[in-house]
Design brief:
The chain is an alpha/beta fold and about 280 residues long. It is about 20% helix and about 25% strand. The protein has one domain: Purple Acid Phosphatase, chain A, domain 2 (4-Layer Sandwich). It has a six-stranded mixed β-sheet with strand order 4-5-6-7-9-8. A five-stranded mixed β-sheet has the order 3-2-1-12-13, with no helix packed on it. Helix 4 links the parallel strand 5 and strand 6. The longest helix is centred in the N-terminal third of the chain and has 14 residues. The chain starts with 9 loop residues before the first strand and ends with a strand. About 40% of the residues are buried. The N terminus is likely disordered.
Length: about 280
């Protein structure tokens, strides 16, 4: 990954999530070409002006956690023209992820421990949190992880900080995704409340752009790179997805103006068209 030269005043973070990559060209759920979708996302980010300084990938990197899936994923992510950082999701396998990305020195070397990490080399401090529970759809942070996070945040209380975790620590209203909620969200919320430098909690899992106030900060959920969870807030809504336009989040840090989050759409669409011509606003 190329090195980044930190700029004290501005920093651009792209976030993608829920890649669900499969091996052998197999479509996810028999429908979704996740490999083609990831390739479009990488091309989009590389061609962006200005180009993001880094990319955060908030979990569900592959679909079943198999080694051959990570073998497909690794070269695709290597095409990114900027550094990228990973956290696992409930579809990932820690051991196989570590084997595929052994050169990612920020990751814990042990698959027996959560893959939590800290990056202090950018204008915005990054803390990755492994919320996965092996064999479970839902998420949590162990008590030991919460103690570790509290200590890490206490080390640099004046530095703007972003947390990256797969599972959003709140109830979304999308019933089938809420059946296994974040187990100790209240403990995390209490902890974050004591550290006002936390600018964002960046999440995945829900395959939609969703925001919620969280302990004086903001929890932002990233759209899926390929497919989206159906926006159905009926309590008995089935577990369905659709092929709405894929998306990503772009977090723009400015030392004077703070962190602003934009939702971007991946793909080609008509435009851009001008608002004005030589006579002023176009009628």
């Amino acid at each position: 990954m190329p090195d980044v030269i930190p700029n004290a005043s501005t920093f651009l973070i792209a976030q993608i999530s829920d890649l669900h990559l499969k091996a052998g060209g197999k479509p996810s759920y028999g429908v979704v070409d996740t490999l083609a979708a990831l390739r479009r996302a990488v091309e989009h980010l590389n061609a962006s002006q200005p180009r993001p300084d880094i990319v955060l990938i908030s979990g569900d990197l592959v679909d079943f956690g198999h080694p051959d899936e990570y073998a497909v994923l690794r070269p695709e992510l290597q095409r990114l023209a900027m550094p990228y950082y990973l956290v696992p999701g409930n579809h990932d396998d820690r051991g196989h992820l570590l084997a595929a990305f052994a050169d990612h020195a920020y990751l814990s070397p042990s698959p027996e421990a959560p893959l939590d990490w800290v990056i202090d080399s950018h204008p915005v401090r990054l803390i990755g949190l492994d919320t996965t529970i092996p064999g479970s759809h839902g998420g949590q942070l162990q008590d030991s992880q919460l103690r570790w996070l509290d200590a890490q945040l206490a080390l640099r209380p004046q530095v703007p900080t972003v947390l990256i975790l797969h599972h959003p620590p709140f109830i979304s209203g999308i019933g089938h995704m809420d059946r296994e909620p974040f187990r100790n969200a209240a403990a995390l919320e209490w902890l974050i409340g004591g550290h006002p430098q936390v600018e964002r909690l960046l999440c995945g899992h829900l395959h939609r752009a969703i925001q919620r106030r969280f302990a004086g900060s903001l929890s932002c959920v990233c759209p899926g790179v390929s497919h989206q969870i159906v926006l159905d807030l009926q309590p008995g809504a089935p577990a369905h997805f659709n092929l709405e336009p894929p998306g990503y989040l772009l977090h723009h840090w400015h030392a004077e103006h703070g962190l602003v989050t934009h939702t971007g759409v991946l793909g080609e669409y008509p435009g851009p068209y001008p608002f004005y011509d030589g006579n002023g606003l176009i009628d």
